[in-house]
Amino acid sequence: MKKRNSFIRICALALVLCLALAFVSCGGGIDRLRADEIARLDVYSEADYTPEDWARLSEIYQNAVDEIESLKNKKDIEAFDHEKVNYEMSKIKTGAQRAAEAKEEAEKALAEAKAAKIAALNNYNKADYRDAEWKALTDIIEKAKAEINALTDKAAVDKFDTAAVNAEAAKIKTDAELLAEEKAAATKALEDAKAAKIAALRTYHKDDYRDAEWKALTDIIEKAKAEINALTDKAAVDKFDTAAVNAEAAKIKTDAELLAEEKAAATKALEDAKAAKIAALRTYSKADYRTAEWEALTDIIEKAKAEINALTDKAAVEAYDTDAVNAATAAIKTDAELTAEEKAAEEKALAEAKAAKIAALRTYDKADYRDAEWKALTDIIEKAKAEINALTDKAAVEAYDTDAVNAATAAIKTDDELTAEEEAARPAPSIKTSLDDGKTYSGKTLTIDVFARNWQNAKIASKVTLNGTDVAVNWDDAEKTSFTLNFTDGENVVTITATDGKKTTTVTYHVQYVKAAPSFVFSVDAFTIGCGYIVEPTVVTLDDATIDAIASYCAEEHKCDAEYVKAHLNTAHVLLYLLNEYGYTAEYNGKPDQSFYLSYVNGFDNSDNIPDNLREKLESNGFSISDDSDDSLGEFMYTWGSGWMYCVDGVFPNVGFADHYIQDGEVIRVQFTLAYGSDIGGSSAMGMGGTSDYFENAGEARDRLTKAMALAAQKHKDNTKEYSAAFDVISQFGITAAELDAATEALMAILK
Fold first, then answer.
1. What residues contact residue 250 under an 8 Å CB cut-off, 6+ apart?
2. Is 588 helix (H, G, I), strand (E, B) or coil?
3. Nearest to 506 by CA among 514, 498, 517
4. What is the β-pairing status of strands 473-476 and 481-486?
5. Which residue stretches of 121-174 are H helix?
6. 8 A C-beta contact, residue 466 and residue 485
7. In angstroms, rounded to a whole number, what is the distance separating the alpha carbons of residues 477 and 495?
8. Domain assignments of the chain as residue spans, ordered by start
9. pLDDT digits over 533-566, tens only?
10. Strand 504-513 versus strand 440-441 pairing type
11. Cα distance between residue 30 and residue 413, in whole Å
12. Cα(636)–Cα(659) distance, integer angstroms
């Protein structure tokens, strides 16, 4: 409950008295209205606020009083938003509220400081420690936590030395650290045992041995050292048999021992080596060779035998290269080899000439060509290859004109070349939209339709930006894409872009948003079942009073937030309000604020008076018709394709009622369909591409006549013959735009 300051109350009463006296003296009711409006402002007690907050509150109050006193006419005074002023004053906090907030913040700061200090203590893993060490470590940490939690002053908490605690905890050795220390001691004992065993191996002098023997001896010693060093167990090292190693090394003969053995075998070895070398020379048959080749072959062999027998050193004999001699003799060609080479040379020359000519033909990648062009190209190349391969004379092959073939293949166009030609002639994407360039819009929110088509008139994706910011897609179907714009005050720049992958079209619209009370035409009809209008064409102006009435109705009857409705008024809110005004109720899915779908309109008697030409279209398109006469009208009644749809300025949006925001001058027609919109010109809104409408889509002409009927009703001309004639025309199916416009012209004539 609000507390009223006695001083302010006295001042307010004095002000009202003064205003009343002024009213009496001036004889005007304006001053009284001002006083009444000032009396609606809430007042508060200065004792409940800090000086600063009281000054702010007083300023708001006084500014509101000053503004009210400046107003000159009844309309402006009644329009003054005193609730907004009261709301602004109610937001200023009392001294008690601010003290409570300060205490809460201090308690929160202490708790956060303790949590931060505890979080600054290092964390450890029990698995990393032995039991005794883990207990010592956790004792340190838990003691520190207890000391922190016992502190009652944030400054004392901030001063607590967590670094010292962490340093103390870090001194506790992990299991890994203790294991490393134990491992180091065992390693030293093992290394000492290895050193003793290696010292027990005999030592030798390199000068006493030839290189091979020295290597064999050192290999034994080094192997033993390696085996000792490879052992990982001290007991195994102690067991190693160094005596056996020393015995094996003693078997290696010295240089002196070997010299005595070698001298005896040297003479025999030299002769045996010469005989073996001569035997290693290949033998041949004279009959296999031509005369010159045979003489050259025998000269090589006899020279080699003489060189071998002249040698006096076994090593030189063994080093003699009989492989080279045999290679030299084997290189001399037999009569058969020479004959074959001569024939092969001729064949090779012809084949190389053909291969060179075929290699001179240009190669191509099938992926670069379309099927027809690739076939024509490969036919030329394969014909040329066949002609070349058919030639049997090298001179004829060399004379073959591959340049002419390459010129013929190069003339065939690639897919890229053909595509470039096609794309050069292809028009850029087209863009149509419900947005009007240069128009001034009165509604802050506007849902627009974008029709983007490529050169084949197929729908393509589109992108919209508002004042440089991307606008999300509201709804997308096979016909169009919808975007919802939220204007800023003044000029707004809307850019629409569409690309077909190769070419891009961009259009820019400059529109103005000026807040105003939009006027529009609204109607609800059931022409498809012969029941005429549920809501006859009417002009609706969304002034403050009307918006307030709609918001109040939606809040009371449909659980909407009244302020939200005022700020985000949509077609669903208007529909529900007008149906109620005309004595009807609605059933729907979703909410008026979002995802609204009109299921049924209740409160009138409907009947099966489907026009004959419409009935014929329905039956020819597979619809079975049932008699669902009732006191309501909605989805799946009469046919399985029935329900409520709406159009705006002749276009059926692909978004629901709740996503359409009304603009000045619009004509909104809510209609009952029996065939998913095909009977009322709205098949495109159901994703059917706009190709299955039963009758001429004269939506714009219907809008013009609907608007004329609304103006006639506004001027009380709805009881005229011209109005009746207009109703007869607009309720028909299969009517032309010309007939609709004629009725419009006749009706407008009586309104001038």
1. 202
2. strand
3. 498
4. antiparallel
5. 131-150, 154-159, 162-170
6. yes
7. 21
8. 6-92, 98-172, 177-252, 256-332, 337-423, 429-513, 529-695
9. 999 999 999 999 999 999 999 999 999 999 999 9
10. parallel
11. 88
12. 24
pTM of the model: 0.47
Q: 539 forms bridges with which residues in the sheet? A: 521
Q: Tell me, what's the pLDDT at 422? A: 80
Long-range Cβ contacts of 400-403 (<8 Å, 24+ apart): 400/357, 402/357, 402/360, 402/361
pLDDT of residue 28: 54
pLDDT in tens, 323-381: 999 999 999 999 999 989 888 888 899 999 999 999 999 999 999 999 999 999 999 99
Pairwise CA distance, residues 597 & 655, whole Å: 10
Question: Which uninterrupted H or E stretch holds 432?
Answer: strand 430-433
Q: Which pLDDT belongs to residue 594?
A: 93
Residue 673 has pLDDT above 90, yes or no: yes
User: How many angstroms separate the Cα of 348 from the Cα of each of 171, 342, 355, 356, 414?
Assistant: 87, 10, 10, 12, 37
Q: For 547-564, give one letter per residue: b (16+ CB within 10 A) or e.
A: beebbebbbeebebebee
198: left (phi over 0), alpha (psi -120 to 50) or beta: alpha
Q: What is the rounded radius of gyration, in angstroms, for the C-alpha atoms of the chain?
A: 54
Q: CATH for 429-513?
A: 2.60.40.3780
pLDDT category of residue 493 using cuts at 50, 70 and 90: very high
pLDDT above 90 covers a percentage of the chain that reads 74
Poorest-confidence range of 21-30, 37-46, 67-76, 357-366?
21-30
Dihedral-angle region of residue 676 (phi above 0 means left; psi in -120 to 50 means alpha; beta otherwise):
left
Which of 585-593's residues contact partners 24+ apart within 8 Å by CB, and which partners?
A: 587/632, 587/634, 590/656, 590/658, 591/558, 591/560, 591/658, 592/554, 592/558, 592/560, 592/565, 592/658, 593/560, 593/561, 593/564, 593/565, 593/568, 593/658
What is the C-alpha to C-alpha distance for residues 458 and 638, in angstroms, rounded to an integer?
A: 35
Looking at the predicted structure, is the pLDDT value of residue 97 above 80? yes
Which amino acid, one-letter code, is at 299? D
The two three-digit tokens of residue 731, written as one number: 């309720």
Q: How far apart are CA 695 and CA 681, in angstroms?
A: 7
The DSSP bridge pattern shows strands 667-673 and 519-525 to be parallel
Going from the C-alpha of 125 to that of each of 169, 175, 462, 575, the distances in angstroms are: 12, 11, 57, 67
Contacts of 617 by beta carbon, 8 Å cutoff, 6+ apart: 675, 679, 694, 695
Tokens read off for 511: 């529109």
Q: Are strands 469-471 and 667-673 parallel, antiparallel or unpaired?
A: unpaired
Point out which residues pair with 476 in neighbouring strands. Answer: 481
pLDDT band at 686 (very low <50, low <70, confident <90, very high): low
Of 647, 654, 645, which Cα lies nearest the Cα of 482?
654
Q: Are 602 and 586 in contact (CB under 8 A)?
A: yes
CA dist 707 and 696 (Å) reads: 20
Evaluate the CA torsion angle 167, 169, 173, 174 in order and state its sign. negative
Tokens of 468: 């440089």
Residue in the block written with tokens 């329900």: 643
CA–CA distance, 661 with 668 (Å, rounded to integer): 11
Q: Report strand pairing: 632-634 vs 533-541.
A: unpaired
Nearest of 116, 124, 126 to residue 149 by alpha carbon: 116
Q: Which residues pair with 493 in a beta bridge?
A: 510
- From the number of C-beta atoms within 10 Å of its C-beta (0-12, 13-18, 19+), residue 722 rates as buried
If residue 60 lies in a helix (H) or strand (E), which one and from where to where?
helix 51-70
Question: DSSP string spanning 713-728?
Answer: HHTT-TTSHHHHHHHH
Closest by CA to 464, choosing from 510, 506, 512, is 506
Given the structure tokens 């004509």, which residue do they identify?
667
